[in-house]
Amino acid sequence: MNFSTNRSQRMKTALGAGLAAVAVLGTFATAQSANAATAQHPAKAARTGSAPYVINHYGEENADKGRAERSPAHLVLSEFTSAQGLHWKQWDGKQAVATGKVTGNWCLETCLDKPLNATVTLSDPKTVHGKRVYSSFTLKLADGAGKYDAEDLDGKRPLATS
């Protein structure tokens, strides 16, 4: 009887140690996967930490006051230009970079129905009302500015910050 009790106790101890090892390995694997996903998709890192926000005036509910967002799919860059279908490739403490489609009142005749391919870069974070927000943007059309004469296509421009 003593032999059976010791054997049963040893089996329980071994089973407990095995389960603990699996839990530790599972935790390690989950952490490794999360780190790898963040390294492969930097924009996902924007959802955490101290990455700045952008004040977005997209949508009727946000038109007046804006809304602090990270990695938005649609973004109002200025009163003249907006972007849609944004795919964020970078979002960190210094800048955010996305590709997508843009339209503006400077190209209504040609881009209202066919928005233009562009790269949007947000930069110059500053603190406004206790939140870090990007304060500037640069817009670069995929085919170059060409015939479009617009301030929003000329270097770094200010973003709304409140």
Structure description:
- With 162 residues, the chain is of the alpha+beta class.
- 27% of the residues lie in helices and 34% in strands.
- It is built from two helices and eight strands, in the order αβββββαβββ.
- A six-stranded antiparallel sheet has the order 3-4-5-6-7-8, with no helix packed on it. The chain has a two-stranded antiparallel ribbon with strand order 1-2.
- A hairpin with a 3-residue loop joins strand 4 and strand 5 (95-104).
- Mean pLDDT is 79; it is low at 10-42.
Task: Describe the structure concisely.
By secondary structure, this protein is of the alpha+beta class. It is built from two helices and eight strands; from the N terminus they run H-E-E-E-E-E-H-E-E-E. It is globular.
Task: Throw out a few tags for this protein.
alpha+beta; two-stranded antiparallel ribbon
Tally of helical runs: 2
Mean pLDDT: 79
Uncertain runs: 10-42
Class by SSE composition: alpha+beta
Helix content: 25-40%
Q: Estimate the global geometry from the Cα principal axes.
A: globular
Order of helices and strands: HEEEEEHEEE
Estimate what percentage of residues fall within beta strands: 25-35%
The beta-strand count equals 8
Please state the CA-atom Rg, rounded to the nearest Å. 25 Å
User: Biggest sheet: strands, sense, closure?
Assistant: 6 strands, antiparallel
Strand order of the largest sheet: 3-4-5-6-7-8
Distance between the termini: 77 Å
